[in-house]
Design the sequence.
């Protein structure tokens, strides 16, 4: 299998950004020398300023590290979040989703969600609803957007009708689906709030953060779930939970502390980073992988220093998407996408030929890999391509066209 020439798999796992890569290497070098020494502990708590110049010179890739607090500050900036609101950092994103489900059903009797959610998250929500005897109201919007090509007002009307019919008082919405459909989550929340009480709102922003918007400045949700290994390009998985409203901080903090103490919210990185921030590190702390902290900080610095605003980067991704759609339509692939307002930088395609649709997802992915192209594939002849942030170059277009045509 030849090396990858065109990487379009960001929606699943992004490539490491340049600073994330050098942070990864220099972290490995530092711990090879220092292990768990006092110098390393000071560096972890206080950042490079705690190290003398010779140490800094040996590990230049760790220069962006200034501690947990500055890392969270950078992440809040990228999310457009209020600088005073907390951020949760965890090893396992499913732990955050379990916490989010507990938060929703602690406050709400009936939570509305859509068919755009990531299936494992939906399963967690369903389990918590059954455990608490609460209700989930499900609204199908995928076909409405992709088959019927509905507009924003039609989408809002459909969600509003279900919300009223179910007597809902909570929301779990996916800002950008794993298939690339973008919901106007803030407008949906505001519309429903104007109609009746909405007790709690959780947003899954895993495909949204550093890709589409993730502007939390208007405080329209209570909790926003994200990660650093997709569009931020930190590579090493690390879950992020952004508090979205000043008014709900105390309630969420109380719930988090209760669940941590009971062991129901059991994540070693969450416990470790909290203790580091509060300078209350205990001797019984579980051994935890710290490398995602440093690669995430490197990737965050790269993202903050990009020359174009996120909105401009998204427009370029969408321009690339239009070009890829044109190539696909002429090469035996059918685009599965909504109207323009709901599009992102993710393109979902389905093979036209029945024989290609019968190939397994792994077989399809292997076939594209043989052409030098990395992407995500699904059973049924579906492939997902994440558009690059810069304009296609002629060699990339030629490679993509050839791969689509030969595998269709």
Sequence:
């Amino acid at each position: 299998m030849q090396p990858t020439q065109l990487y379009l798999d960001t929606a699943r796992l992004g490539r490491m950004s340049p600073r994330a890569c050098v942070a990864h290497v220099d972290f490995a070098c530092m711990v090879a020398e220092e292990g768990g020494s006092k110098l390393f502990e000071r560096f972890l708590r206080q950042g490079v300023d705690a190290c003398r110049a010779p140490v800094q010179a040996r590990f230049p890739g760790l220069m962006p590290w200034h501690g947990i607090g500055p890392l969270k500050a950078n992440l809040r900036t990228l999310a457009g979040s209020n600088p005073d609101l907390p951020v949760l950092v965890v090893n396992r994103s499913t732990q955050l989703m379990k916490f989010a489900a507990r938060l929703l059903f602690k406050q709400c009797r009936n939570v509305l969600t859509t068919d755009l959610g990531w299936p494992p998250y939906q399963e967690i929500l369903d389990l918590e609803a059954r455990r608490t005897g609460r209700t989930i109201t499900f609204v199908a919007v995928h076909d409405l957007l992709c088959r019927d090509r509905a507009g924003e007002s039609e989408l809002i009307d459909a969600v509003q009708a279900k919300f009223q019919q179910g007597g809902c008082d909570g929301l779990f919405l996916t800002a950008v689906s794993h298939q690339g459909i973008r919901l106007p989550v803030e407008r949906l929340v505001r519309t429903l709030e104007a109609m009746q009480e909405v007790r709690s709102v959780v947003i899954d922003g895993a495909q949204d953060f550093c890709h589409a918007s993730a502007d939390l400045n208007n405080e329209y949700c209570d909790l926003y779930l994200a990660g650093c290994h997709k569009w931020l390009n930190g590579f090493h998985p690390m879950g992020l939970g952004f508090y979205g409203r000043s008014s709900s901080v105390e309630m969420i903090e109380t719930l988090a502390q209760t669940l941590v103490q009971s062991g129901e919210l059991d994540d070693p990185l969450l416990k470790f980073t909290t203790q580091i921030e509060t300078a209350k590190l205990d001797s019984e702390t579980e051994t935890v992988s710290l490398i995602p902290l440093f690669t995430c900080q490197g990737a965050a610095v790269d993202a903050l220093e990009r020359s174009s605003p996120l909105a401009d980067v998204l427009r370029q991704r969408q321009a690339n998407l239009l070009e890829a759609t044109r190539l696909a339509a002429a090469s035996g692939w059918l685009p599965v996408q909504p109207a323009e307002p709901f599009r992102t930088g993710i393109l979902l395609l389905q093979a036209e030929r029945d024989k290609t649709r019968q190939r397994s997802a792994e077989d399809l992915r292997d076939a594209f890999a043989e052409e030098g192209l990395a992407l995500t594939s699904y059973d049924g002849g579906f492939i997902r391509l994440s558009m690059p942030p810069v304009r296609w170059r002629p060699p990339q277009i030629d490679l993509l066209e050839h791969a689509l045509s030969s595998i269709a």
